[in-house]
What we know:
The chain has one domain. The chain contains 4 helices and 4 strands, in the order H-H-E-E-E-E-H-H. Strands 1-2-3-4 form a 4-stranded antiparallel beta sheet. By secondary structure, it is of the alpha+beta class.
Amino acid sequence: MRLILILSFFFLLFSCADKPSVEQDVDPKEEKILNHSQSGKKQSTPSKQKATSNFTFFTHLQPEGWGYRISEKGKQIIDQQFIPGIPGNQGFRTSEEAQKVAELVIEKLEKGTFPPTISEEELQKLGISWRN
């Protein structure tokens, strides 16, 4: 009886999870293959991780535009769906724009800045465009 309760608990625990919390366990090559085979679903681009960094990021496409997710040691800490530092809910126009900002955020995190806020001036220096 105890075994059934324990197994039921683990079944419920794992069946309720929306998605795995550790995104960086996915091999980047497998990630690209996965994204190309899942038409109509969000697309993502894995980051180029520095050898000494604990942070990784993925860019992802959504209805509002591109966004990014940042993980630290495999645990997601930021899910940025919109361009930070500007009013409104607007996604990035390209994956490259989302990548530039994600890299800047990671630089700030590595320096110990939390929260790693982004200003309009920093967006302009990175060449990020948005609609007013």
